[in-house]
Fold this protein.
Amino acid sequence: MREGSKIAGCVALIGLLGADIGLQIASRFAAPPSGVITVQQAAQPEGSQETGNNPKPNDTYGITLIVALLGAGTSILTLFVIGYQTFIFRGQHEIMEGQRRLMRRQANISSQQITLARDEFLASHRPHMTIHQVTLLPDYSGARPDEAPLEAEFAIINSGTSAGTVISSAVELSYLYYDEIMPLRRMRRNEVIIPVRYEMGMADTRRIKGDDLSGLAFDEAGDPGFTKKLYLRGWLLYADDRERRRTTYFCWEYDRALERFRLTDDSEANATY
C-alpha cells in the first residue's frame, strides 16, 4: 500500500505541475484587458502598433482551452491511476491475509501433530513404580530386643519407559496377625513416599519406623492365624505426563529364617492397576 501511495502521489504532483505550466503559458499569451497598453506596445511606433503581429484574442483563447483540457485530462488520469493502484494493492493485501491465515492453520496442524505424537509415545511408554530392596535396619540404641524400635529402609524405582510423578502414598511397618491384614486400598495415606517426579530409571530410598516394638517376644510357631509377622505394605499413586494415574500395591513379609524381606505370594497385593 505504501508503494502505491507513493506512485499515486508522484502522478498527482506531475499533473499539478503540468496544470501550473499550462496556466502560466495561458496567462503569458492571453490578451491584456481593454485600455491597457503593454510596455512593448508603448515603445513601438503607432503604425507598427496598428499593424503588428500580436496574437489575436481568439488564438489565445484556443491555447487556454487546450491547456485547460490537458490539465483536466491529467487530473482524470491521476485519479484513474490512484484507483487502479488502490485496487491492485487491496487485492495483494487480501492475498497476504489469506497466506497469514493459511500459515496460522498450518501452525495449528503442526501443534496438533506434535501433541498426537507425544500422546502416542506416552501411550506406549508408561512409568512403572515399584518397591525394591526392603531392609530391616539394625538397632544400635542398646535397648532390650523386645523394646527396640522398628525401622526399615526401602527403594522406589521407576522401571518403566517414561517419567512418572508421585501423587500420594501410604506405607506401614508393623507386626500383624493374619486376620488383621486389611485390604491395601483401605490404608490411609501418610505420604511416606513424598510427591516427587521420577524420571525413567530413577531410584530413591525412604525409611519408615514402626509403631510396634521389635516383636521378638512373639513366637512365630503355631497356627498362621495366631502368629504375628512383620510386614511392610502399602500403595503408591502416581501419574504420567498425560496425567493418567496408576496405583501400585505392595506387601513385603519379613522372613526370620532368611533374615530378610520377601514379597508375599498374594498377587493382588503386588500389582499395578
Residues 174 and 210 are 5 Å apart (CA to CA).
